[in-house]
Amino acid sequence: MKQPCANCPFRKSIAYALSPEKAHDILQAITHDKAFHCHKTVDYSESHEGRVTVESKLCFGAVLFLENTVRGGCRSNVMFRFGLISKEFELNDLRKEESVYQSFEEFLEEVVISLLKIDPTIDFSQGNFYVQTVQHNRALKVRVNLP
């Protein structure tokens, strides 16, 4: 069965330093029919933003995250449906996955906590962090309570 890579940012066990803006951009992309590619298949030789190439593959962690969080799962995203059609992954690979975040809130909370571990002086406005995104034409405002 297909698995997310060992250091996929959608895995619960991974400590990483995504900025809140980057996390927001990722959530915006995968909830608005945009592709999100595996960081191991993106070319970072010319820019820290990376460049998608013809060899780039869809992020399977993002696929499973959508399965966990969005009605219709990854099939709610046009680009991920193309991944199914092109056989990057198959229907029997799709499942609820406990090693991947179960909610937008859980994902964003870990982003903030990871940043605080790197720099405990970051001020998130009195202990709360908000991210607004749109999920299938429905506003989603996420509040993360910090330790």
User: How many strand elements?
Assistant: 2
> Rg from C-alpha positions?
15 Å
Report the β-strand fraction as a percent range: 5-15%
Distance between the termini: 36 Å
What's the overall average pLDDT, rounded? 80
Relative helix content: 25-40%
Order of helices and strands: HHHHEE
Shape: globular
Structural commentary:
With 147 residues, the chain is an alpha+beta fold. It has one domain. 30% of the residues lie in helices and 11% in strands. The chain is built from four helices and two strands; from the N terminus they run ααααββ. A two-stranded antiparallel ribbon has the order 1-2. Helix 1 runs antiparallel to helix 4 (104-118). Residues 127-139 have low confidence and may be disordered.
In short:
This protein is of the alpha+beta class and 147 residues long.
Task: Write the SSE topology.
Layout: H1 20-30, H2 60-69, H3 78-85, H4 104-118, E1 128-135, E2 138-145
Antiparallel strand pairs: 1-2
Helix pairs in contact: 1-4
